[in-house]
Task: inverse folding
């Protein structure tokens, strides 16, 4: 009996991924990491009902694993802190609303353990008590299963699994430049520049015109950083618009390419059919004869080649081993009985062995 094909063959289920990304996009618009805001969006979308309607136990547990793996994907880098908080809340919601008994655990690979610990420490330092509470609740319920690999290793899975595209809107932007502007680095740099100018004036041997730095270094650095931030915001907004418009432009482009290819194939066929010329009726029998003669000539050449390359027969090898020449064998062959058509000629054995004498 053939093995039944699995209903969920990939690691992630695309309709579920779309719903999760929609929820995280709404949560991102709130600009908050509170669990209260997340739970309101969760109840509004009704994500607790994703497990309803699956009757088979094996299929239900398989879908629970896919659901938790989808939520875990947004809990890990390279997403921003707010999206990772949303991924943690998704893990908490999916784990406690699943219908499998016993509940399916969250598979956390050992390679991701350092990132989770750093996320927890950052949440404690920032004072986000909701995040710390939800994470500790999952740990206390023993919902996390620490494994070597994020997915089950089976022999029937494809060697190169399908990789889900990363949502560009959820990625965390580089905030090092913003921290540099908001910090006291520019003020400290200005103080160092003024101290350098005073020391240069106090030194008589060094001329005031000689300088190794720019006097307006702090102002120039601030302008460059503000220009980078404006460019970053503009680039991200343009990328999002291009991604939305690119989906609409892909379909007509594909249609145009397929139609041009069809036209090219039809033109090639027409050219090949136009170059074909039929022979007149008076010459058709000649063509058949030429074909037959060419085929017979080819067969003769093949037979001659086979004869030239054919190894000597067993009879020839036997004569050679007995020391009998082929020409002599035609005249006087050692036969048990001589045919009647030939003349009666006494036949002698040329290589007769003498009798043994003690």
Result:
């Amino acid at each position: 009996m053939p093995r039944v094909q699995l209903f969920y063959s990939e690691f992630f289920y695309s309709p579920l991924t779309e719903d999760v990304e929609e929820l995280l996009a709404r949560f991102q618009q709130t600009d908050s990491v509170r669990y209260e805001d997340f739970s309101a969006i969760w109840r509004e979308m009704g994500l607790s009902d994703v497990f309803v309607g699956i009757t088979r136990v094996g299929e239900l547990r398989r879908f629970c694993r896919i659901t938790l793996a989808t939520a875990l994907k947004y809990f890990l880098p390279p997403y921003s802190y707010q999206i990772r908080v949303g991924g943690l809340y998704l893990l908490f919601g999916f784990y406690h609303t699943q219908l499998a008994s016993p509940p399916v655990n969250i598979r956390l690979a050992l390679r991701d353990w350092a990132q989770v610990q750093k996320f927890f420490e950052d949440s404690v330092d920032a004072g986000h008590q909701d995040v710390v509470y939800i994470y500790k609740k999952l740990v206390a319920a023993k919902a996390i299963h620490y494994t070597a690999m994020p997915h089950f290793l089976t022999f029937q899975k494809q060697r190169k699994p399908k990789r889900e595209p990363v949502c560009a809107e959820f990625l965390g932007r580089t905030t090092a430049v913003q921290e540099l502007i908001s910090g006291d680095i520019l003020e400290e740099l200005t103080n160092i520049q003024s101290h350098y100018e005073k020391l240069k004036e106090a030194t008589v041997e060094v001329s005031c015109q000689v300088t190794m730095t720019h006097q307006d270094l702090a102002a120039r650095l601030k302008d460059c950083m503000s220009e980078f931030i404006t460019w970053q915001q503009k680039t991200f907004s343009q990328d999002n618009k291009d991604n939305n418009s690119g989906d609409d432009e892909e379909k007509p482009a594909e249609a145009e390419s397929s139609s041009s290819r069809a036209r090219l194939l039809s033109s090639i066929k027409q050219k090949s059919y136009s170059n074909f010329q039929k022979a007149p009726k008076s010459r058709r029998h000649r063509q058949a004869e030429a074909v037959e003669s060419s085929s017979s000539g080819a067969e003769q050449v093949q037979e001659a080649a086979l004869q030239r390359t054919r190894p000597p027969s067993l009879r020839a090898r036997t004569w050679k081993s007995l020391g009998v020449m082929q020409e002599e064998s035609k005249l006087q062959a050692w036969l048990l009985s001589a045919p009647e058509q030939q003349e009666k000629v006494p036949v002698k054995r040329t290589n007769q062995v003498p009798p043994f004498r003690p």
